[in-house]
Q: What sequence folds into this?
């Protein structure tokens, strides 16, 4: 049961990482901010610089 | 002792089952086999490859060291460099490398039968593709997450760096042209498909606005909402197709091509958060879900393959694309077996997330195995169709005839019976007006997927929904690749032009954005336009060109890897990278030679140009001749560039081995990791 729970946690964590929710949480922690429109806009400004240059494979 | 014995016994059983499954798919002739044999052969081979070969590469060649700090640990900035759980990095890396390629390539290669493509997908991945992804990832980790181009410049030489840059640019342009052509061929004359795909644009924009203004940072929730809206769009498409509005969404190939070109240009210039980012999320959401559903569907329903193991078209006379089994089967399937494009991802975001060196094995080698399994599923989706139906969908009008009756007669005369009525019924079941001459692979994959699912879920009543779901799924992938690729191409061009005139290199300067976006879109748009005007369906030219350029990039990546191996003194194990390198050189160079110089006009660009020239026909002939010569020129230039990298690499190896040059270590110096030690 504990293993199942741990696997589910990892699965959710993976999804949150793939969908950049963890990156946003790290951004908030790094800048000591709480989630808001302004904070997310600032996060997008920073993260989009990387995203724009990230190729998508065939 | 007992445990060790049991483990050995287990691996002997897995290897034996894999060998038996491979023998079953290789030796059965004249009778249908179950798709599960392909799945078993693949899974057992992957298990043995991962357990033994990747372990051998880790311990003998790469000497993975869990005590060595990775750049994610040393340079942790909470943004690009972040030590991340290995399963999370695995998911992240897989989501980045899996695109439409492993779905389309195997569907096209199925014209040779299920055997050649399946064997290449399995063997190519275990000995080539996985090795490439793994070693490039590890070498990038040991060099602070440097890109392939940077490693090529530092390890091979200046020419290597420039060639890698040009090869990346060329592959992006050719790839975008080829995938755009697949979307056009899938949507032409299809109001349902066109409506659904068109609807994904406002849905993505809505997601972008929702994410930015209503629920900041809730990407999973937004993607789930977007997915629900896309499902609604699929059902809405069915209504549109049967309503008076159907004409509004029924377009010919040229109109769709112009729409995609305009779209590509706009998407490249729009803010990332508005269209690219939300669609990327939506595409990933659909991709992961659909791949899982397809895997479960194949295992649960165990469909029978109707395609023979080998078809008569191994001789090179295939209607889907012309060319014999060697080398064309091996360049048609790139992404599912060996893909140079993966080297860009392995030396991009992923190395900056790796927590411990030992995890590169699972992430690099393991993710490619997962991608390869997607290619096996695509092969199954194509081969569950009746061969006659498969060829009717994938063969261009220029080969089989423009009318349903003519096409059915031609295909039946090859020994693959099909009738116009049978195709009309199938088209009606999937909600299309016709399925003849739908080249490009996407419609055949969609029909195959619909066929598998209709075996249990909803029967033929839901076949149309499954078909359009699959089309939406592939088109969504492709439009995401198109957005991201155009932008990446634009940045590369701006980086290059910035050396000539500084303002052009400023990525936020609007005149530069517009000019460079227009240049990149014009380049892939030209290939797209040439494809839709090609009487042989376009894919006959575009997909081999894409396969050649993709695997030439893999050649460059393996040259870089082999050079690093030689310099590190692990010569005894150099065969690990040298063996796939030699194979790729043989495959890509022969394919390039065939595509340029073969005397058969269906294969050789120059022979086709000469045939057109001799025909003396007016109209489009001059432009078609120019296109053939351009394709030949592009192929020759790419090969010459890769020959230069090979020569430069070889010279470097000889210098190092003869002692004329001291191998310079470009790895970052060893720093002890603070993370717990882990046995390799």
A:
């Amino acid at each position: 049961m504990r293993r199942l729970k741990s696997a589910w946690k990892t699965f959710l964590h993976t999804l949150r990482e793939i969908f950049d929710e963890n990156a946003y949480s790290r951004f908030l922690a790094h800048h000591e901010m709480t989630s808001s429109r302004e904070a997310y806009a600032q996060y997008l400004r920073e993260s989009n610089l990387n995203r724009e240059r990230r190729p998508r494979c065939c | 002792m007992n445990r060790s014995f049991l483990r050995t016994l287990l691996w002997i059983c897995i290897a034996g089952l894999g060998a038996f499954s491979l023998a079953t798919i290789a030796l059965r002739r004249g009778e249908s086999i179950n798709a599960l044999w392909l799945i078993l052969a693949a899974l057992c081979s992957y298990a043995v490859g991962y357990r033994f070969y990747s372990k051998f590469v880790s311990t003998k060649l790469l000497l993975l060291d869990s005590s060595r700090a990775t750049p994610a640990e040393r340079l942790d900035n909470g943004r690009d460099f972040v030590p991340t759980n290995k399963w999370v990095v695995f998911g992240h890396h897989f989501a980045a490398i899996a695109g439409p390629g492993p779905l389309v390539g195997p569907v096209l290669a199925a014209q040779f039968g299920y055997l050649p493509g399946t064997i290449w997908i399995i063997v190519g991945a275990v000995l080539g593709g996985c090795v490439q992804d793994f070693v490039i990832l590890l070498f990038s980790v040991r060099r602070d997450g440097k890109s392939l181009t940077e490693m090529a410049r530092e390890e091979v030489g200046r020419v290597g760096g420039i060639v890698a840059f040009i090869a990346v640019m060329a592959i992006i342009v050719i790839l975008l042209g080829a995938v755009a052509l697949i979307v056009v061929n899938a949507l032409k004359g299809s109001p349902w498909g066109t409506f659904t795909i068109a609807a994904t644009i406002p849905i993505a924009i809505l997601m972008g606005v929702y994410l930015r203004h209503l629920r900041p940072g809730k990407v999973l929730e937004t993607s789930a909402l977007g997915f629900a809206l896309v499902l609604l769009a699929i059902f809405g498409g069915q209504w549109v197709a049967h309503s008076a509005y159907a004409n509004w969404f029924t377009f010919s190939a040229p109109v769709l091509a112009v729409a995609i070109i305009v779209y590509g240009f706009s998407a490249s210039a729009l803010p990332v958060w508005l269209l690219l980012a939300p669609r990327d999320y939506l595409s990933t959401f659909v991709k992961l879900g659909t791949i899982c559903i397809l895997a479960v569907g194949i295992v649960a329903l165990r469909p029978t393959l109707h395609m023979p193991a080998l078809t008569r078209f191994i001789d090179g006379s295939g209607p889907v694309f012309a060319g014999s089994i060697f080398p064309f089967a091996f360049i048609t399937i790139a992404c599912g077996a060996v893909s140079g494009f993966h080297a860009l991802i392995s030396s991009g975001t992923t190395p900056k997330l790796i927590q411990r060196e030992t995890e590169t094995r699972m992430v690099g080698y393991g993710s490619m195995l997962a991608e390869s399994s997607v290619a096996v599923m695509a092969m199954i989706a194509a081969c569950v169709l009746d061969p006659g139906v498969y060829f009717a969908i994938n063969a261009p009008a220029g080969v089989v005839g423009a009318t349903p009756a003519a096409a059915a007669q031609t295909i039946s005369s090859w020994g693959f019976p099909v009738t116009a009525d049978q195709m009309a019924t199938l088209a009606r079941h999937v909600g299309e007006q016709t399925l003849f001459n739908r080249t490009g692979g996407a419609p055949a994959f969609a029909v195959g997927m619909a066929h598998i699912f209709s075996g249990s879920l909803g029967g033929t009543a839901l076949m149309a929904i499954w078909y359009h779901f699959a089309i939406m799924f592939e088109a969504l992938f492709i439009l995401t690749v198109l957005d991201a690729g155009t932008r990446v191409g634009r940045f590369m061009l701006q980086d290059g032009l910035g050396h000539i005139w500084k303002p052009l290199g400023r990525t936020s300067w609007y005149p530069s954005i517009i000019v460079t976006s227009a240049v990149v879109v014009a380049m892939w748009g030209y290939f797209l336009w040439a494809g839709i005007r090609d009487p042989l369906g376009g894919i006959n030219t575009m997909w081999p060109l894409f396969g050649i350029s993709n695997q030439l990039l893999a050649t460059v990546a393996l040259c870089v890897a082999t050079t690093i191996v030689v310099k590190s003194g692990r010569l005894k194990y150099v065969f690990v990278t040298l063996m796939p390198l030699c194979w790729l050189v043989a495959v890509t160079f022969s394919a390039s030679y065939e595509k340029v110089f073969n005397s058969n006009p269906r294969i050789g660009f120059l022979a086709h140009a000469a045939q057109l020239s001799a025909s003396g026909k007016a109209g489009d002939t001059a432009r078609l001749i120019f296109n053939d010569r351009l394709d030949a020129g592009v192929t020759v230039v790419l090969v010459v560039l890769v020959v230069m990298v090979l020569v430069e690499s070889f010279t470097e190896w000889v210098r190092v081995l003869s002692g004329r040059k001291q191998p310079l270590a470009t790895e970052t110096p060893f720093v002890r990791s603070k993370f717990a030690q882990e046995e390799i």
User: Anything to note?
Assistant: The mean pLDDT of chain B is 90.
